[in-house]
Specification:
With 454 residues, the protein is mainly α. It contains 18 helices and twelve strands.
Length: 454
């Protein structure tokens, strides 16, 4: 059975790159009838916050990709980490090092001046020093040959062992370092496939060697190419990227975000639209592109617009109500209103912003229309005759056509100012739809207000 994990550090909210990693890990597990686990790597005591644990958990739940078991907190496993680190020390696979920070700083400076890669020189590798309160434990990284693995996305990756130093696995205060704790936690959790960003490739080779030293089964690894912004650099907020709950608050739909995230590097033929249930059936790592993906806010908006128009009107109006608290008195007209606006909207927030005139009077003064007094008389006549008709769509449309013909007008001469009177906007649905949805009483009130002001 496949077991994957998502292992964020709770030092911030969940952003798009991390959300994509979590999604791919979840989908790979589900496509292989496996389990998806969550581990908080919270050993940075100063920066790790409970609020970020909650935010990340809430984000995964909103995305509908929750873990199959209770989350694991790395900070609660320090004794386990220390036990295994000391095991390597006793077996001669790790060693105590008492180099001072002063010596290490001097070493790094010398290497910098020689244009060498900064790395530990192995001074204490073969001294068999005893552990003390000030010493650290370093892993004896193999000095000969190379380290390699077959990445499920990128293919074979091989790096000469001379590129690695004997890195610290246990600090002098007894706390484990990232690569050691991550490796042994993957072992302890039974992780079979680790899916993460390609910035972890060197970490993976370190962790593989740790697991080899412990003589345990090594998981498979898949490294996702990074997501780039418009600048071609790593995605940032400057490119329009937000944290996941911010997308939720802005009115993006879970279904759209999932669909967009999975398309950041994964393809399945010519298809563009996938439900989460579909993805759980068809997702394969072999379909993930080995080149970086590029973030596009326009494409995210396109997906969200598609899903806004897939939703049943009664469900869409509930999403509007959930954000605004606004309740349409006439549900049928409310559903019609949000459905009309949804055709051109990119988010629920945009639907709300663009449909405010259905429940808020725009209060347009006549002088704002830029029309002369003759046109004012025309609108007085329109107001008087409109008040006499039934307010069903067919009758409204016939009345408008008749009024335009009788007064020898072109449609924009009536439609453009009337649209502004009714909505405060130049761009809005058709006049017939506006009048019908806003209703007779409110429509007449708005026209009367404009005629009496300016």
């Amino acid at each position: 059975m496949e077991i994957t994990r998502f292992a964020p550090s709770p030092t911030g909210n969940l952003h798009l790159g991390g959300a994509r990693t979590a999604l791919f890990s979840y989908l790979f597990a589900k496509a292989n009838n496996g389990k998806f686990l969550l581990r908080f790597e919270d050993t940075d005591k100063e920066r790790s916050k409970d609020e970020f644990v909650k935010s990340i958990t809430d984000s995964l739940n909103w995305m509908k990709i929750p873990p199959d078991e209770e989350p694991v907190f790395q900070s609660k496993k320090t004794a386990f980490h220390k036990e295994l680190a000391l095991q390597l020390y006793k077996e001669g696979l790790a060693y105590a090092c008492d180099c001072t920070e002063e010596r290490l700083s001097k070493l790094r400076e010398e290497q910098r001046l020689k244009k060498q890669k900064p790395m530990y020189d192995g001074l204490n590798r073969n001294k068999n020093l005893p552990l003390s309160e000030t010493s650290v434990l370093r892993f004896k990284f193999p000095q000969e040959g190379s380290s390699e693995f077959d990445d499920l996305i990128l293919g074979n990756i091989k790096i000469n062992n001379k590129e690695f130093d004997d890195f610290i696995i246990l600090r002098s205060d007894g706390s484990p370092t990232y690569n050691f704790s991550a490796a042994v936690d993957d072992m302890d959790m039974g992780i079979t496939t680790v899916i993460r960003g390609d910035d972890h490739i060197t970490n993976t080779l370190k962790q593989i060697n740790i697991l080899k030293a412990l003589n345990v089964k090594i998981p498979s690894y898949a490294h996702l190419p990074m997501v780039l912004g418009d600048s071609g650099k790593r995605l940032s907020k400057r490119d329009g990227a937000e944290d996941i709950l911010e997308y939720k608050n802005k009115g993006y739909l879970q279904e759209a975000l999932i669909n967009y995230l999975v398309r950041l590097g994964w393809t399945h033929g010519e298809e563009e639209i996938f439900s989460l249930d579909q993805l759980k059936e068809i997702f394969k790592l072999s379909d993930v592109n080995s080149s970086p993906a590029k973030f596009s806010l326009d494409l995210l908006n396109w997906y969200n617009n598609k899903y806004l128009n897939f939703i049943e009107p009664q469900d869409l109006i509930q999403k509007v109500k959930a954000i605004t608290g606004v309740d349409f008195n006439d549900m049928q007209k409310g559903e019609l209103a949000v459905s009309l606006i949804a055709k051109g909207a990119n988010s629920v927030r945009e639907i709300i912003d663009e449909s405010k005139y259905f429940f808020q009077d725009p209060l347009t003064d006549f002088e704002e229309l830029g029309l002369d007094n003759d046109r004012k008389d025309l609108f007085k006549s329109f107001f008087k005759e409109l008040s006499k008709i039934d307010f069903d769509p067919e009758t409204i449309e016939e009345f408008i056509k008749s009024f335009i013909k009788t007064n020898n007008l072109k449609f924009p001469e009536l439609g453009k100012p009337l649209r502004i009177i009714l909505t405060g906007k130049q761009n809005a649905p058709s006049i017939t739809e506006l009048l019908y949805i806003i209703g007779k009483e409110l429509s007449l009130q708005r026209i009367e207000y404009t005629l009496n002001h300016g």
